[in-house]
Amino acid sequence: MVCRSTNRGAATAKTNGGIKMKAWLYYRLSRDEDAEMNSLQNQRQILVDYAEQHGYEISGESFDDNVSGMTFERKGLHQIELAVEDGKVDVLLVKDLSRLGRHRTRTALFIDYLRENNVKVYSVTEGIDSSNENDDMIIGFKQLVNDFYAKDIGKKVRTGIRQKQKTGMTVNLPMGYYKDRNTGEVLVDETAAAIVREIFEKFFAGYGLSTIAKDFNRRGIKSPEYFSHRKVGAQRTQMCKKFLWVQTTVKRIIQNEAYTGTLVNHKTVTSKIYKTVDVIPPEEQYRHENFMPAIIDKETFEQAQILLESRLKNHARAKFGSVIHRYCGMIKCAECGASLIAKKRTVAGHSWVEYTCNSNHRYGNEYCTAHTIREPQLDEIIHTELAMLRQEILDSSQKYDEIVKDWNKKKPKYDKMIKEYSQKIVTLNGQIEELIMERIGDREHAKVYNSMIEKREAEIAELTKKIEECRKFDELSKKRRDELMSTAELLDEVLLEPYISDANMRLLVRKINVHENEDGSLDVSLEFNGDFKDTSTGCFEIND
Ligand SMILES: [Zn+2]
Q: What distance in angstroms lies between residue 325's CA and the mean position of ligand 1's atoms?
């Protein structure tokens, strides 16, 4: 890219009001457009020609290369500002308005800034003059088109490339955020953010959604509705006092990924004709990572989703004011199938939570035995079992590792086998053809031929399967080993903490069965979620 001198006098010095107008040239090449059509050289030439034809004095020029129109952090634009402040610019020349920016409001703000400094913008190929009031509409319209264009590009590159632009969308910010009026930057509203954090903390501490909501109402904590209306105008806050917290308000906050800083757009499509709302699959939504500062870290957010899902599934809804106990809804009596219910016990100043068979609790010893187990005992069992599970996983991943190594050694042998099997299939197919021919000439013995053909067909099927197995074997071994390794890593992280969090525990353990033996001792068996399930079900004996 060659750019010649930045200060070039106009060839035909036409004057405007006796004084030559000072023109600044600006051109931009975006990384997401056709470089041929809009090359910097090409854009520059158009502007120089225009300036010469209209008798402007070119006072300077600046450009941005490979920069998206959505960002306004551009060296070239900054140079314009400096030149404007130095009084070097009367008119800014651009090939088309999209050179200036593809972000409608930001571009409009920039044009406004130039206007305030008595600088006009000429869009050379579009014939738009920013000083002409009538062109305002065209500018607005063009900006709208540019806006859509940029979004369209965003759609094309959304897979693989993380979109970097932080600006460019008008969004309804969730409670906890506000937009700086001057810079457009999304910032944290600390008062509201503290409420959001408290919700997550309370939720992890075991409080139910409606308990949190009721507690907030009792304490007079402002609801998200209050915060959204506050943005509109202070006078409305009086009216908004009536907005209260409900269970869904709390749930929506826990589920809102925006709190991790990731903005997800285009989640639904509303049809104005049919008045329907369609949910867009996650892969077609626009994700903008680090769109705003995080209030909740990603890990906490993900754990909250698991915990939320698990609580909803287990219907573990606590009564108002009560805490949901750690193993609530997932611990069952092996004898009668009832859930074990939590009770808080205090003996001599020492208190703990224990779980008892609900049938025993309700109908007494005649119906089912107590099956009483204390929470710390369960914690210990799970911790021990997870540690054992981790070791087993490591051992078996080593086994797969050896299989992969072994495979590499044996590969030539397997290749040879595949070749042999393939040749055999060719031979068998030839034989089948011959048998079919013979069958035609010897109809009397058709049955014999048929069985001979069938036998060969079965052989071919068998060989084809063997070939497949040979080919897939190493692939599957590698995959399984990687899966196991990542599982072991996850367990490492979980076990690093002295106390396994509720969310992690529910992530790993699906169900706990408690069986009471004749002598009153308990057997506890754990069922693990997902990947863990085929690896182990532990059995423990407790003598209490
Ligand atoms: Zn029972």
A: 19
For tokens 């070239």, what's the residue? 76
pLDDT at 196 over 90: yes
Residue 428: its pLDDT value, please? 92
pLDDT of residue 78: 86
Q: Ligand 1 centre and the CA of 354: distance in Å?
A: 15
CATH architecture of the domain with residue range 177-302: Alpha-Beta Complex (3.90)
Q: How much distance in Å is there from the Cα of 31 to the middle of ligand 1?
A: 67
Q: CB 157: neighbour CB atoms within 10 A?
A: 12
SS3 of residue 276 by DSSP = strand
Q: Domain 22-156 maps to which CATH number in 3.30.70.1280, 2.70.130.10, 3.40.50.1390, 3.40.50.1100?
A: 3.40.50.1390
Note the pLDDT tens digit of each residue in 280-298: 555 555 667 777 899 998 8
In this structure, which residues have their CB less than 5 angstroms from ion ligand 1?
A: 333, 335-336, 338, 357, 359, 368
- In the DSSP assignment, the letter for residue 334 is T
Biggest distance spanned by C-alpha atoms of the chain: 114
Of 258 and 316, the structure prediction assigns the larger pLDDT to 258
- Calculate the CA 343 to chain-centre distance: 39
pLDDT digits 0-9 by tens, 135-194: 554 555 455 445 544 444 433 333 222 233 333 344 567 889 887 767 777 889 998 999
User: Residue type at 20?
Assistant: K
Q: DSSP secondary structure string, 397-449?
A: HHHHHHHHHHHHHHHHHHHHHHHHHHHHHHHHHHHHHHHHHHHHH-GGGHHHH
Whether the CB-CB separation of 63 and 76 falls below 8 Å is answered with yes
Stretch among 191-195, 488-492, 518-522 having the lowest mean pLDDT: 488-492
Both tokens of residue 282? 């996650």
Write down the number of H helices and E strands in the chain: 15, 18
320 burial (CB, 10 Å; 0-12 / 13-18 / 19+) is exposed
DSSP code, position 94:
E
Q: How far apart are CA 145 and CA 104, in angstroms?
A: 9
Give 268's contacts (C-beta < 8 A, 6+ positions apart): 277, 278, 279, 280
Calculate how far, in angstroms, residue 212's C-alpha sits from the geometric centre of ligand 1. 32
User: Residue for token digits 């050289």?
Assistant: 41
Neighbours of 153 (CB within 10 A): 19
Domain extents in the chain: 22-156, 177-302, 386-494
The mean per-residue pLDDT over the stretch 351-360 comes to 90
Contact between 335 and 356 (Cβ < 8 Å): no
- pLDDT over 50 at 343, yes or no: yes
Any idea what the Cα angle at residue 300 is, between residues 299 and 302, rounded to 5°?
Answer: 65
d(CA 119, CA 92): 7
pTM over 0.70: no
